[in-house]
Each structure stands twice: as C-alpha cells, then as structure tokens.
Specification:
The chain has 93 residues and is mainly alpha-helical. It has 5 helices and no strands.
C-alpha cells in the first residue's frame, strides 16, 4: 500500500495498515489470530460498519424518544451542544 493519497497527504487507513503489517511480521507473533484486533481496526477504518451501525442505533433511539416523549430528543441535543456526550451517557458527568 502506498502511503500517499491523491491529494498528497497520507491515506486514510495507512497507520492502521502499518500496525497490522508490523503485527504480522513481528517475530513475537506465532499465529495470525494474535493480530485480530489490528485487523479489526484496519477493516473498520476501511469500511466503517461498526460506526454506521452505532449511528443507526442512536438515530433509531432518538426517533423512539421523539414518539414517546421520554429520554433525550434530537432537539435537546441541538440546544445543549456543549453537553451532547453527557446527555448520551458516553462520558461521565
């Protein structure tokens, strides 16, 4: 994989690719299963399946909250833009 993109910077997933190759070629690695976390990171960087799934679930929950008038709604998130992550309980208060 070439490290440079068409725009001249590094490719989007080049660093994940480097860590994957370093794991595969390391003398300490006896099986490919040891490199599964690096492969998962590289695969996620290329395709973004987990990120899209999390976004889909979050939007589904926001729509459900709008219908039931329970929990955090999209309007609440826009009003309190500084505390978005606290409202979603992704960061402890």
């Amino acid at each position: 994989m070439q490290p440079y993109s068409r725009s001249g910077g590094t490719r989007k997933c080049f660093y994940e690719f480097q860590t994957l190759v370093a794991c595969y070629t390391s003398a300490d690695t006896s099986t490919k299963k040891e490199c599964t976390p690096q492969f998962d990171d590289y695969f996620e960087c290329l395709h973004g399946y987990k990120e899209r799934e999390r976004t889909r679930i979050m939007l589904q929950q926001l729509k459900e909250n709008e219908k039931t008038k329970n929990g955090v709604t999209a309007q609440d998130l826009f009003k309190a833009s500084g505390s978005v992550y606290e409202n979603l309980d992704l960061v402890k208060k």
